[in-house]
Amino acid sequence: xxxxxxxxxxxxxxxxxxxxxxxxxxxxxxxxxxxxxxxxxxxxxxxxxxxxxxxxxxxxxxxxxxxxxxxxxxxxxxxxxxxxxxxxxxxxxxxxxxxxxxxxxxxxxxxxxxxxxxxxxxxxxxxxxxxxxxxxxxxxxxxxxxxxxxxxxxxxxxxxxxxxxxxxxxxxxxxxxxxxxxxxxxxxxxxxxxxxxxxxxxxxxxxxxxxxxxxxxxxxxxxxxxxxxxxxxxxxxxxx
Length: 240
Fold this sequence. Notes:
Blueprint: H1 4-33, E1 39-41, E2 44-46, H2 49-81, H3 91-108, E3 112-119, H4 131-148, E4 154-157, E5 162-168, H5 172-186, E6 188-192, E7 195-199, E8 201-207, H6 216-233, E9 238-239
Parallel strand pairs: 8-9
Antiparallel strand pairs: 1-2, 3-5, 3-8, 4-5, 6-7
Helix pairs in contact: 1-2, 4-5
């Protein structure tokens, strides 16, 4: 499988998470079982030598366990944020970034645009496209998007055949130029396991200055409308 390295990496990451969480869990268990007993005498607390040994043992393992938990959180964040096939942001995370950009645009009177892409029905000539070949096509589309966008832009995969690119400080005109470059680059024949297919992409441009884009719900509604309009006009169409 072409995506085997990515799958193996995910398996290793999950194992690392489990190991880190087990280490942190072991520390918590030790805290629960090695409760320190304080003795109150003449209004002051005192600690026996045995209890001090427990405290010293817990302190020496606290830093290591804290680092293990921090590592686990880091790995979990990566798994949550990225799509394994495209190496783009996941649906949840790209929507999170767009929502943050909406708040920023309102607060600081800035603007941004979003390009919503959809892989058009593939002209396969009767060729069956399996999951591995579909992942290959999705990966090629994703690589093309990543190739053209800026470092300040954020690309994400929003469903099996749809993508989103968040473009800060970009108006609809600039977003349309970029979308057309990506569309033209994607439109070509691809070699699959059982033949050649042609893939195209359509899409829509959503600008934060649009009165309908008052919040995330409004933005997603406009995005669906633009993609529906692009589908109605036929493949290889970008709607502004």
